[in-house]
Amino acid sequence: MANETIETPEEVADTLRKALKFVDSDNLIPSTNCGMAPFSRDVALGKLSALSAGTSIVREELSVTRS
After folding, report:
1. How distant, in Å, are the alpha carbons of 2, 23, 32, 40 from that of 14?
2. Mean pLDDT by 10-residue block, N- to C-terminus, for the chain (67 residues)?
3. 43 and 4 in contact (C-beta within 8 Å)?
4. 31 CB contacts (<8 Å, ≥6 apart)?
5. Residue 16: Cβ within 10 Å count
6. DSSP code of residue 54
7. Is 49 helix (H, G, I), strand (E, B) or coil?
8. pTM for this predicted structure
9. What is the reported pLDDT for 39?
Protein backbone atom coordinates (compact mmCIF):
# COMPACT_ATOMS: atom_id res chain seq x y z
CA MET A 1 0.00 0.00 0.00
CA ALA A 2 1.20 3.48 -0.77
CA ASN A 3 1.07 4.83 2.77
CA GLU A 4 3.65 5.66 5.40
CA THR A 5 2.75 2.76 7.67
CA ILE A 6 5.73 0.45 8.00
CA GLU A 7 4.51 -3.11 7.81
CA THR A 8 5.90 -5.72 10.18
CA PRO A 9 7.88 -8.62 8.74
CA GLU A 10 5.01 -10.87 9.84
CA GLU A 11 2.51 -8.80 7.83
CA VAL A 12 4.75 -9.03 4.77
CA ALA A 13 5.13 -12.79 5.26
CA ASP A 14 1.35 -13.15 5.51
CA THR A 15 0.89 -11.26 2.24
CA LEU A 16 3.46 -13.51 0.56
CA ARG A 17 1.75 -16.65 1.88
CA LYS A 18 -1.53 -15.42 0.41
CA ALA A 19 0.15 -14.80 -2.95
CA LEU A 20 1.54 -18.34 -2.92
CA LYS A 21 -2.02 -19.62 -3.23
CA PHE A 22 -2.01 -18.23 -6.77
CA VAL A 23 1.60 -18.45 -7.97
CA ASP A 24 4.41 -20.98 -7.59
CA SER A 25 7.13 -19.92 -5.18
CA ASP A 26 9.70 -20.02 -7.98
CA ASN A 27 7.73 -17.29 -9.78
CA LEU A 28 6.97 -15.03 -6.82
CA ILE A 29 9.21 -11.98 -6.64
CA PRO A 30 8.64 -9.93 -3.49
CA SER A 31 9.09 -6.26 -4.31
CA THR A 32 7.80 -2.77 -3.64
CA ASN A 33 4.94 -1.23 -5.56
CA CYS A 34 7.21 1.55 -6.87
CA GLY A 35 5.51 4.01 -4.56
CA MET A 36 8.52 4.74 -2.36
CA ALA A 37 9.62 8.08 -3.84
CA PRO A 38 7.33 10.31 -1.75
CA PHE A 39 8.38 8.70 1.53
CA SER A 40 11.10 9.86 3.86
CA ARG A 41 14.31 7.83 3.83
CA ASP A 42 13.42 6.35 7.24
CA VAL A 43 10.01 5.14 6.08
CA ALA A 44 11.40 3.74 2.83
CA LEU A 45 14.20 1.91 4.64
CA GLY A 46 11.73 0.58 7.20
CA LYS A 47 9.48 -0.76 4.46
CA LEU A 48 12.42 -2.33 2.61
CA SER A 49 13.69 -3.91 5.83
CA ALA A 50 10.26 -5.38 6.54
CA LEU A 51 10.07 -6.69 2.96
CA SER A 52 13.45 -8.38 3.34
CA ALA A 53 12.66 -9.84 6.76
CA GLY A 54 9.20 -11.04 5.70
CA THR A 55 10.68 -12.68 2.63
CA SER A 56 13.25 -14.44 4.82
CA ILE A 57 10.47 -15.80 7.04
CA VAL A 58 8.65 -17.33 4.08
CA ARG A 59 11.83 -18.65 2.47
CA GLU A 60 12.66 -20.44 5.72
CA GLU A 61 9.15 -21.91 5.88
CA LEU A 62 9.44 -23.12 2.29
CA SER A 63 12.87 -24.67 2.86
CA VAL A 64 11.54 -26.61 5.87
CA THR A 65 8.50 -27.75 3.87
CA ARG A 66 10.67 -29.01 1.00
CA SER A 67 13.16 -30.83 3.24
Report:
1. 18, 14, 15, 25
2. 88 98 96 86 95 97 85
3. yes
4. 51
5. 20
6. H
7. helix
8. 0.89
9. 92
